[in-house]
Design a protein that fits this description.
By secondary structure, the protein is an alpha+beta fold. Helices cover about 20% and strands about 30% of the residues. It has helices spanning about 125-145, 160-170, 185-195; strands spanning about 10-20, 35-45, 55-65, 70-75, 90-100, 105-110.
Length: about 200
């Protein structure tokens, strides 16, 4: 959830860790009653389409009621008057909580920005449901010792490849409108160009 936000949204390319720590917590990180701050990660979310969406910095803070972290709170870092990019829910804080009880429970809790709809059919509600499903899927995989069968990014590291792809897509976007092949230009024009770089 912290190091791979791209699993939650196709509009996010990846994240870059800016700083991590377990003391001297920044002031913007919220305090939660009956929970102790354990560790925080200051990260930058990089959008898949930088020309359309800006990057966003965010605090990811782990909390605990005992010795094992059971709560993760994501806090976007915004300047006064700035708005959130489309790929981020319209919230001040987003929390993932594990509640151990007779029936263990996973919960997503939010502090919405004033004016954000919280109806069951709203974008925020759908986003929270999707995040909960992703959390459950990866939690289930960890619990059942899921192992990847295919290892990606073995020849070329992911970050330089993604950065080059963004440069190519911007540089050669005019080819999409003049594409002569029968294949989908939005996908194949860049696959054809990549080997020449």
């Amino acid at each position: 959830m912290i190091h791979h936000p791209e699993y939650n949204s196709t509009l996010i390319l990846r994240s870059q860790v800016i700083q991590e720590g377990s003391f001297n917590f920044p002031e913007r990180i919220p305090s939660v009653q009956n929970l102790v701050k354990i560790r925080y990660t200051h990260r930058k979310l990089l959008p898949r389409r930088p020309a359309r969406d800006p990057a966003l910095e965010q605090f990811c803070t782990l909390y605990s009621a005992s010795s094992i972290p059971d709560t993760l709170i994501l806090t976007p870092i915004l300047d006064e008057g700035a708005s959130l990019p489309y790929y981020h829910p319209s919230v001040r804080h987003l929390a993932f909580r594990y509640l151990p009880s007779q029936v263990p429970t996973l919960r997503v809790e939010v502090v919405p920005i004033t004016g954000t709809s919280t109806d069951p059919d709203s974008r925020l509600a759908r986003t929270c449901l999707s995040l909960l499903e992703t959390l459950h899927r990866y939690g289930w995989g960890a619990m059942t010792n899921y192992k990847k069968r295919v290892l990606h990014d073995c020849l070329v590291p992911r970050e330089p490849y993604q950065d080059l792809y963004l440069v190519m897509r911007e540089r050669h976007k005019l080819l999409v409108s003049t594409w002569q092949e029968v294949t989908d230009p939005l996908k194949h024009v860049f696959e054809v160009l990549l080997p020449s770089y």
